[in-house]
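Task card 7
Instruction: Convert sequence to C-alpha cells.
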Amino acid sequence: MPKAVLWDFGNVIVRWNPRTIYSKIFSDPVACDRFLADVCTMDWHAPTDCGVTFDDNCAALARQHPQHQSEIFAWRDRWSEMFSGPIAETEAAIEALHAKGIPQFGLSNISHETLAATLELSPAFARLRGFIASGLEGVMKPDPAIYRLCCDRFGYAPEDFLFVDDSLRNIEAAEQLGFDVHHFVDPAALRPALETRALL
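Output:
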C-alpha cells in the first residue's frame, strides 16, 4: 500500500481550461475551437511549462499569426481567467489525508511565472509538504526524470506513492516506473480510490 500521495495541480486540485477565457473572447464557438486547435494549442503552450517565458512564447507565436496577436497575448495577460475554482472533492480528500498524517506532495507541469498565483487558489496547497514544478526544474511530465526527482527529493520509492493526475500519458509513465496511480477523471471516484488503498 502507498505511504504518500503525489498530486497533480491543474484539473485535479483546481480546474483549468483555456476555453474558460477564450469563450469570452470569441463569440462564435466554432472560431474559438479553431483558434485553440490551430493557434494557441497545448503543444505550443508546453514550453512555458518547461521554463520559457510567456512573453517569449507569445511573441514567437504572434509573429506566425499576426492577425491574432491580441488573442495570443490574452494567454499571458488573462491567464487567471482560465481557472474556474478548486475541486471540492480533492480539497476534502487532502484535508482528510492531512488529518490522518499522510504525507502529501505535488508534481505539476506549470510555469514558474504562474506558480505562486496558482498556489493561492486553494488552501489545500498549503497541506503539501513539498512540490516539484516543471517550470523550475526544466523537465516535465511524462519525462521519467521528473518522477525520479520526486523520489530523490521527497525520500520515497516509486511504490510508496499514489500519484493522482488527470493526464493518461502522465499516469502511464509513472506506472511504468512503479508508482501506484489513480487517473483522475471523475472527482467522485477519488475518495473510494484512497479508501481502497487504506489511505482514508
